[in-house]
């Protein structure tokens, strides 16, 4: 991927392979930064979608994932939540998921793999393509 940089004539080239290698070789160092980035991305994506007023099972899943990210990375399903079906790629949230980790990190249990937040947003984008 080439990104334009202010004042430079040459774009900044980013190799997906290099990024993957960096993650694989420096995961313990980079993981907290990645998790914090995922939290920000989920929050921003949910806000953009919320304003559009669209709701699907995947969007509800995103809403709860955003809430989990805001609560130290754990599902927070209290007071009758989820109130609407919240499901994505076979994962169906229920009140029994309360307190479970959002992301599976190293050998610790969790609901989502590290690449899942990106795939979730991609799936929602595909669902919403062409929506007003």
How does this structure look, described?
The chain is mainly alpha-helical and 132 residues long. The strands form 2 sheets. Strands 1-2 form a two-stranded antiparallel sheet. A two-stranded antiparallel sheet has the order 3-4. The chain has one domain. The chain is built from 4 helices and 4 strands; from the N terminus they run ββαααββα. The radius of gyration is 17 Å and the shape is globular. Helix 2 packs across helix 3. 48% of the residues lie in helices and 6% in strands. The mean pLDDT is 87.
Order of the strands making up the biggest sheet: 1-2
Oligomer classification:
single chain
Strand content: 5-15%
Q: What is the alpha-carbon Rg in Å?
A: 17 Å
Task: State the end-to-end CA separation.
Answer: 29 Å
Shape: globular
Q: Could you tell me the number of beta strands?
A: 4
Whole-number total of structural domains: 1
Topology order in helix (H) and strand (E) letters: EEHHHEEH
Fraction of residues in H or I helices:
40-55%
Please describe the biggest sheet, giving its number of strands, its sense, and whether it closes into a barrel. Answer: 2 strands, antiparallel
Q: Helix- and strand-based class?
A: mainly alpha
> Which stretches of 5+ consecutive residues score pLDDT under 50?
none
On the 0 to 100 scale, the average pLDDT is 87
> Count the helices. How many?
4
